[in-house]
């Protein structure tokens, strides 16, 4: 059961990374802004400034978007592989699904805060708390064994 949980957690995390990559690759000017900020910071540390920072970022943001697009497809492929392995090692597909979903939600929250500066509202925290409660219930309840059916054999 432990490998199934680990694979499910990794699948959820990779799904969040794929979503963040999609937002970066398809977002309008976020990567360009990050590039300009990075060049400004790097230029101040090096004690010189480039007059053409925006020109360099105009050239760099397209390859960065393509790189994020490639990361999107790679993370999705690996995520589906881990999800399939999680389903194979888990005793219940419901446990795997809820574990992957919870991992995805939490990872998305942390990546959103880290990369985009997003904050979650109270309702989001209530929802994730309910998800975790359901996850705990699913993982604590052991699968019930079905009683074996005995066939009625009538001698007629």
From TrEMBL:
Stretches that traverse the bilayer: 62-84, 122-139
Highest rank taxon of the organism: Eukaryota
Signal peptide: 1-19
Keywords: Membrane, Signal, Transmembrane, Transmembrane helix
Annotated InterPro entries: EmrE-like (IPR037185), TMEM42 (IPR039632)
Protein's name in the database: Transmembrane protein 42
Record organism: Mugilogobius chulae
